[in-house]
Structure formats: structure tokens, C-alpha cells
Amino acid sequence: PYLVPVVILIVGPATWVEKFPEARGTRQSPVDIVTSRASSGGSAPPLVWRYSVNHPRSVVNPGYCWRVDENGYDSELRGGPLGSDVYKLQQWHCHWGSVNGEGSEHTVDGRAFSGELHLVHWNTSKYNSFTEAAGQPDGLAVLGVLLMVGSKHDELDKVVRLLPYIQHKGDKVTFSEPLNPANLLPKRIAYWTYPGSLTTPPCTESVTWILFKEPVQVSAEQVRLNLCYYVNGKNV
Ligand SMILES: NCCOCCOCCNC(=O)c1ccc(S(N)(=O)=O)cc1
Ligand SMILES: [Zn+2]
């Protein structure tokens, strides 16, 4: 009989539990949204947000995809599932796949999208810093926007066009072109919401997820640019 070489890869989410015990929890993200099992919104108050537009922002290559830091400038997210607390935008970033059409973290009825944008907010009513809030069950609220290939996204392009300048992990470029994060959200603001976690280590169960139902369109070129520069943080 011949020996079949069995190599078990010891990388990726399956091993995160070894280093990050929180990843073994009961409210881990991302999840597959089974639309038939979602309850109707009931009488939740409307979700409202306000972002500042004219302030310097920095785009960073954190080693996966890219991240835009809001540098503490004022903003507010409240209502919906957030009770009476007011949340503030800390940063926003994206997740793209290495193969087009498979980049999103959340899936809807088993379907993945080309990418997913996350706008990360923290509870300023209860906590004094993002880091503190990130460790609390009601500390963070992340708006998730599903991205699909279609027409070019002009607001997102203000970031995509800077990617050639942050090709290496740790690179950062600051820009002051006016940008309204509200323009990254879909027109129709129906959403699914559930209590979950950070989707990357330490996978802390501190996120109220708010995932918009309507995908937002980005051009194939914008996806290619992201794929070219950010395939899981590696420069290709
Ligand atoms: N155990 C104390 C709490 O520590 C958590 C701090 O984590 C800081 C680094 N990670 C993040 O800020 C972070 C933010 C958002 C997302 S995601 N993809 O879920 O939106 C994933 C990760
Ligand atoms: Zn994310």
C-alpha cells in the first residue's frame, strides 16, 4: 500500500481559537444571513447617522486590505438596535476576496459578494475610548455594506486611487479631499442586525452588526485594483 501524504494546514480561522479564546464564543462573526429566518424589524426606531466631511483622513495598509482612519473627527450613529447610546465612527475598511465574487465576509442565503465594507463605530455614551469599547458586549457597532461589480463608485474611488501609494504593510497616506462616509451606504437602508464579534483576531464579541440588505456597486476595475494590491495583505 502507498502512503498518502496528509498535510493539515495550521493557518487560518480554524487555528485562531488557539491564540484567541474569544474566537470560541457563542456570537462569532461573520455569519450566513438566512433571510427566511430573519424576523421583521418590529418597532425599532430608525437608524440615523451624521459624518463630518471636510477633515484629513489617512489610508493605511494594515496588512489586510486597506483601512481609513477618521482621526477622531466628529460623527454620530444612533437608533435602530443601538438603544439610547450614541456611537462614533472610528475607522472604515474593506474585505476583498482573492477570487472575484468571493470577497465578502457575510454571505446572504449562502451567496458571497465581491467585497464588503465595514464602518466601525464605538459607544461614546458608555466608554472613553475605542480600545475600551472594543472589549465590551455593547461597545462597537459596525455598518456592513456588501459590494458587487457594476458601475464605478465615485466616493470609494477617492480611496482606491490612493492604493498604489500604500502597497506595503504599515504604509499610510493622508488626504484632505472632502469625503462623506454616508455616500458609501446604499440608497435603501433596510438592514439585518445581530449581536456578533470582530471578524478578525482577537474576534472579541463586542459588535452589534448592522448589515445593509442592498449591495452597493463598484466597478470591475476598482475590484481589480483592490485585488492587485490587497490579497490578504500580500502585495501581488
Ligand atoms: N480584548 C480587548 C478588546 O480587544 C479588541 C481590540 O481589537 C483591535 C484590533 N481590531 C479591530 O479594531 C477590528 C475592528 C473591526 C473589525 S471587523 N472586520 O469585524 O469590522 C475587526 C477588527
Ligand atoms: Zn471588517
Structural commentary:
There is one protein chain. The chain is an alpha+beta fold and 236 residues long. The chain has helices spanning 13-19, 130-133, 154-160, 220-229, and strands at 32-33, 47-51, 57-60, 67-69, 75-79, 87-96, 107-108, 115-123, 140-149, 172-175, 191-196, 207-212, 216-218. The strands form three sheets. Strands 3, 4, 6, 8, 9, 10, 11, 12 and 13 form a nine-stranded mixed sheet that branches. The chain has a two-stranded parallel ribbon with strand order 1-7. A hairpin with a 6-residue loop joins strand 3 and strand 4 (67-69). It starts with 12 loop residues before the first helix and ends in a 7-residue tail after the last helix.
Query: SSE string, helix = H, strand = E?
Result: HEEEEEEEEHEHEEEEH
User: What is the structural class?
Assistant: alpha+beta
**Individual helix count:** 4
The span between the termini is 41 Å
Q: Which small molecules are bound?
A: aminodi(ethyloxy)ethylaminocarbonylbenzenesulfonamide, zinc ion
* Average of pLDDT: 90
Topology, number of strands = 13
Overall geometry: globular
Radius of gyration: 18 Å
State which percent range the strand residues make up.
Answer: 25-35%
Helical proportion? 10-25%
Q: Report the sheet with the most strands, covering strand number, pairing sense and barrel closure.
A: 9 strands, mixed
Point out poorly predicted stretches.
none
